[in-house]
Amino acid sequence: KTLKIGLIPGDGIGHEVIPAGRKILESLPAEDGLKFEFVHADAGFDHFKQTGVALPQETIDLLKRECQGALFGAVSSPTTKVAGYSSPIVALRKQLKLYANVRPIKSVLPSDKLTDMVIVRENTEDLYVKEEKTYEVDGERVAEAIKRISESATKNIANMAFRIALQRYNSRLADPESTHLKGKSIVTVTHKSNVLSQTDGLFREVVRSEFDRQSSDFHSKVELKEQIVDSMVYKMFRNSSEFDVVVAPNLYGDILSDGAAALVGSLGVVHSANVGDSFVVGEPTHGSAPDIAGQGKANPVATIRSAALMLEFLGYPKPAARIYKAVNEGLLAGVVTPDLGGNYSTTDVVNDIVSRL
Ligand code: NAI
Ligand code: MG
Fold this sequence. Notes:
Elements lengths: L1 E9 L3 H13 L8 E6 L4 H7 L5 H10 L2 E6 L13 H8 L4 E7 L9 E7 L9 E6 L2 E6 L5 H24 L10 E7 L7 H14 L3 H4 L2 E7 H10 L6 E4 L1 H11 L10 E5 L4 E5 L16 H13 L3 H16 L13 H11 L1
Parallel strand pairs: 1-2, 1-3, 3-12, 5-10, 8-9, 8-10
Antiparallel strand pairs: 4-5, 4-11, 6-7, 11-12
Helix pairs in contact: 1-10, 1-12, 5-6, 8-9, 10-11, 11-12
Bound molecules: 1,4-dihydronicotinamide adenine dinucleotide (NAI) and magnesium ion.
């Protein structure tokens, strides 16, 4: 089977880590039966500076028409508003209806906190609808933003979290040694409905009622818990090993998932996927890292794991597992970039993983 994958390096170290992801996919052994065709697509701040467009229509059309999935590197975003520029990844999520952002965080190194969790973040609404305004009242400026939660988007994200929980239950039955988690999968819905009783209240209510609608077989395998988001942060850092699948509205999910990266050493190892019903985009969690760009120091692991996660969502768990295993072996052997205390280059790490594959 040949998969056509769009490659969108973006800016900065995106140009170093995306070729790394490509190389790993190309190096999968023939027995996996997968072949790849790669197509380059533009997006990002550099592209905006050259052309005035951050996410060209050709990129969207190419992905939609020709590709099964894509890998997105990172884009630089100016901290002050630049006329005409808005983040291409946010636009891409919207255009391709990638309603879920899935971010697994699993400890590998002895220095990591014992963790095996997946944060499933709603990717289309909440405060990120970006409907903001500023006005004047009694001589001072007041700014406001809309926080939108809909039943349909919440149902989608709840069911994504439930599917992942069920799949994790089955895979740990098959391989109990692969994780410290035991027994039923636990989905934790996080919110602040004690204060925001309508918006977060709706999120909580819809996740609960979607859970109740599942079969008794499902209920024998997956349990639902809830945790207010502020104490969630506390618990996650105190005892991350308690958590399994966490489902969250967009903003809380964004904050929780970047925070959770601190449990496992470096932003350079944390991967994610933006998932919809018909498309998936693998994406490292980190940004374009201008401080190390062009120096061969970028950790390619986050992107390589993102490529594996993309394969999982495209229905190829076996080659994905093979990639995770090779990556973990390399980490444990100490073949790591400077962000993890090593002195190997991006290319060294890629070649090491290729040889383990
Ligand atoms: P960043 O993630 O780019 O870098 C934070 C720190 O982590 C830096 O010291 C960097 O060198 C290090 N780092 C990140 N990824 C690494 C890797 N793979 N290997 C080794 N070290 C790594 O975040 P920062 O500095 O806040 O943002 C830089 C630019 O990236 C900004 O323009 C920002 O807007 C953009 N950004 C883009 C994201 C995206 O495209 N999804 C996400 C976050 C930031
Ligand atoms: Mg973030």
